[in-house]
């Protein structure tokens, strides 16, 4: 039997002692809580953008946040480690979106990068972020490099537009017969929203014109190889190019409607870029798209990229769908075995039709 406490017994010291013990116990628990959970990392590479073309010295940038804080950001080019990228650039937009992540207001990473140190053509860049608990997350981007013969032209007097001619479409500028470091090139410059200016997206050396005339009508069938867009794109597509050749210059149309222009060399390697198609998914959301082609006429190979861009009242979007397939000259030959006749049984769609599709379809 417990003895009954006297009615005037003071409980205050006992209560205080219990609270103190609880506080001590809670404090010990807090002191043994493990560090922030590692591995919760959000990474975004903003430049280079997938399937876009880059030339010369330009930005390489993005942002990253992690629940355990970010230790470093590593750059790999074509699989090889290149350098660590400086981290800590002010990004209040990221801080507002991820307020509970350490240093989210300073989540930007960026550096100047000489894309022309790479060979012309496709490359893959991989960004790997590592948090303070050694967990990591990475993102890869495939892009194209357009470059002059020299990776860095230090003397501005070696670049000249004397004798060059120019033309333009909606937001692109083309220059023919410019010289750089003693060689002649045709170049194309496109407006790029992320840099708020025109950038070089195509550099084609001008050499001896090919002996063969590659003008004519070409039909291609191609399969989707990648799609960075939020909307679905048909997995099979057809293209019809009608081309005329003057020296190494090619001009013509895609699908009999959209102007295309480019060059071909002595081996039949060709590069073409189309004008822009304008579309309006909604009254105030403007969409534009254009094609880029690379391939070889004698080898009957082609790679086609449809570049999409949306802006206005809708969220800005810049993405691309890439296709690879075969291309064959059909003018003056029996079309019964061409891509056109196969379309009856194969649900391939015109690439021109795919490029006109509004965002979200």
What do the pLDDT scores average to? 81
Cα Rg: 29 Å
| Secondary structural class | mainly beta
Number of helices: 4
Alpha carbon gap, first and last residue: 81 Å
Strand % is: over 45%
**What is the share of helical residues?**
under 10%
Order of helices and strands: HEEEEEEHEEEEEEEEEEEEEEEEEHEH
Strand order, main sheet: write it out: 15-16-17-18-19-21-22-23
The structural domain count equals 3
Spatial shape:
globular
Largest sheet: 8 strands, antiparallel, barrel
The total strand number stands at 24
Q: Spans of 5+ residues with little confidence (pLDDT < 50)?
A: 1-6, 11-35, 332-346
Textual characterization of the structure:
With 361 residues, this protein is mainly β. The protein folds into three domains: 41-145, Immunoglobulin-like (Sandwich); 156-199, no CATH class; 216-356, no CATH class. It starts with 11 loop residues before the first helix and ends in a 5-residue tail after the last helix. The protein has helices at residues 12-31, 92-97, 339-342, 351-356, and strands spanning 41-47, 53-54, 57-66, 70-77, 80-85, 87-89, 108-114, 121-131, 136-145, 159-160, 165-168, 172-180, 183-192, 197-205, 216-227, 236-246, 249-254, 258-264, 269-274, 277-279, 285-296, 301-312, 317-329, 349-350. The radius of gyration is 29 Å and the shape is globular. Mean pLDDT is 81; it is low at 1-6, 11-35 and 332-346. Strands 15-16-17-18-19-21-22-23 form an eight-stranded antiparallel beta barrel. It is built from four helices and 24 strands. 10% of the residues lie in helices and 50% in strands.
């Amino acid at each position: 039997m417990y003895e009954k406490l006297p009615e005037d017994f003071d409980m205050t010291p006992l209560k205080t002692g219990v609270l103190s013990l609880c506080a001590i116990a809670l404090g010990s628990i807090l002191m043994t809580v493990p560090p922030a959970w590692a591995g919760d990392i959000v990474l975004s590479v903003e430049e280079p953008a997938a399937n876009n073309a880059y030339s010369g010295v330009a930005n390489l940038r993005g942002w990253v946040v992690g629940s355990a804080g970010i230790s470093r950001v590593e750059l790999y080019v074509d699989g090889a480690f290149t350098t660590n990228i400086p981290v800590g650039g002010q990004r209040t937009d990221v801080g507002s979106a991820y307020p509970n992540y350490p240093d989210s207001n300073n989540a930007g990473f960026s550096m100047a990068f000489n894309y022309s140190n790479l060979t012309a053509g496709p490359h893959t860049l991989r960004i790997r972020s590592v948090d303070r608990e050694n967990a990591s997350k990475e993102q890869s981007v495939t892009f194209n490099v357009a470059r002059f013969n020299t990776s860095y032209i230090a003397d501005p007097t070696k670049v000249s537009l004397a004798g060059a001619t120019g033309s333009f479409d909606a937001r692109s500028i083309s220059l023919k017969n410019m010289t750089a470091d003693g060689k002649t090139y045709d170049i194309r410059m496109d407006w790029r929203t992320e840099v708020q200016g025109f950038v070089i997206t195509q550099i084609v050396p001008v050499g001896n014109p090919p002996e063969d005339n590659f003008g004519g009508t070409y039909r291609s069938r191609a399969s989707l190889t990648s799609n960075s867009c939020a909307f679905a794109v048909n997995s099979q597509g057809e293209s019809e190019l009608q081309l005329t050749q003057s020296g190494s210059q090619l001009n013509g149309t895609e699908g009999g409607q959209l102007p295309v222009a480019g060059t071909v060399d002595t081996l039949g390697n060709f590069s073409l870029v189309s004008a822009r198609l304008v579309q309006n998914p909604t009254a105030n959301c403007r969409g534009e798209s254009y094609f880029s082609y690379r391939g070889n006429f004698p080898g009957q190979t082609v790679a086609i990229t449809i570049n999409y861009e949306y802006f206005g009242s809708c969220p800005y979007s810049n993405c691309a769908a890439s296709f690879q397939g075969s291309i064959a000259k059909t003018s003056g030959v029996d079309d019964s075995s061409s891509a056109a006749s196969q379309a009856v049984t194969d649900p391939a769609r015109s690439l021109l039709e795919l490029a006109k599709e509004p965002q979200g379809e």
